[in-house]
Predict the structure.
Amino acid sequence: MNNPIDEEKINRLRQIAKEIRKDVITMIYRAGSGHVGGSLSAVEILTTLYFHKMVHDPSNPNWSERDKFVLSKGHAAPLLYAVLARCGYFPKDEIFTLRMLNSRLQGHPSMGSPPGVEVPAGSLGQGLSIAAGIALAAKLDRMRTRVYVLLGDGEMQEGQVWEAANAIAHYRIDNLCAVVDKNMYQLDGRVEEVMNIDPLEEKFRSFRWNVFTIDGHNFKEIIHSLDEAERIQGTPTAIIANTIKGKGAKIFENNNRFHGTAPTEEEYLQAMRELEEDQ
Amino acid sequence: MNELSEVLGKPLKYVGLREVYGEVLTRLGEKYENIVVLDADLSSSTKTSIFAKKFPERFFNMGIAEQNMMGFAAGLAAAGKIPFVSTFAIFASGRAWEQIRQSIAYPSLNVKIVATHGGITVGEDGASHQCTEDLALMRVLPNMTIIVPTDAVETEKVIETIVEVKGPFYVRISRAKFPVIFDNDHRFQIGKGYILREGKDIGIIATGLMVSHALKAAFMAEKEGISVMVVSMPTIKPIDHGLVLEVARRTRAILTAEEHSVIGGLGSAVAEALCEDEPVIMKKIGIKDRFGTSGKWDELIEFFELSPSKILEALRELYVRKLR
């Protein structure tokens, strides 16, 4: 935890995150539907993974030695698409075909469509198992591949997640790192009111996982925890990232109306103005 | 039982499909280093235990957690492995249906689900462990190929074939030992049905264990002057549409026979083909929209009216309808 993180790098990530936020909001506004809140809460996490941490090659999406990212909370598809496009996996303008007929960008991601999407998602609770299978294959092949998976906090209510958590620890799949985007809300309201999942940290620990709890919008904390996770052998790591749903524009933040609803024109313009002014 | 031996023109032999599966899988494991095998705490019943013993580093017992097992298999396949996933048919197709849909069939991943204990011949364990719904559940999934081997010989060929063909497969085998129908030179092809016996009055299209019952029934019917064609249909999806129509054109009366619900399985697939392209009179033998129960497997065959004599009754009925 002592090596200093280059401020310049952090600033660069911050700039990218801001652009991605604008893309996500614009995509959903233009599509007329989509999940704003749960996309914006994970912007820093995906930005760090794709623009700092992961070894990958956007010009060769199937490169066998790449690190892999599995989006389990599939409703954050707009975020994944915006990140992949900005990396160069597919033409940038295509992001605005989100949710349209004949687009490669479905409301929830399909495998390989657009390029860079590792596995399908949308039905919650399945990504951790798939990520584990990918990570296990890498271990069998003695590859250095690391597999990252992003889960939602509401998603932790799915039983399959815990079947996977148990199996991953059992088989010591330590090249896997799960990040929980703990934005405190799910479709019907606050997670603790709909179906409380806490204490999440203790749950993971009791499943024999290594756990870090961080501020999911703080690049330094994200980077540190991802680096630490890579160092730990024999145990999988869960990073519980405390986040703000709708992070980036005041009208969206902690406003669960934007779980799955597009902003109006007025709300859209207001959000974009806010992001522009935030330097 | 002597009748079947007479029909087949060879001494009768009963061989377990599970044992063959476990042995073939282990043999293929030598040749294909990418094969990995997953089971959900039933490996000694599904016989993946044979593979586990030989290749412990490529066998993963996932515990009693079928949904997670399907997800692991999807990930392993996405990373280039050839996962064979085994558990009882009802737990594979039922418990983990949506995982199969979302994580395996939708991305068309190379996962081979080989489910044992299909049908009611599971026997004494009763309704909870019997499975009369799996063919219906799997048929409705795009990208899924479904195979029900006829006997031990075909089981071996099926496993050898699917390892070479990319994409998701659901193979249903049974707990009970089946009479060996085919000779070792049998050539199995995905999507092909086989005319095992010629006949002109009625065509039986049967799958799995019911192929042997159909052969026996056809033999008995012939003594009553009813000439019956018998077709084995191991691939339930994609069904051999051409052959179904050919049998219909030649006999104008079809009887289907399966150890599965009369809803959604082989009978439905044949009916769908016929009513669109070659409507003829038809009858289905199968489990009549009800749950199973405990009993010895041969008692259950009688109880659920899947026996050769029940097929014979259906043949008589169809024959009378045809003459009207």
Notes: Chain B is about 45% helix and 20% strand. Chain B has a mean pLDDT of 97.
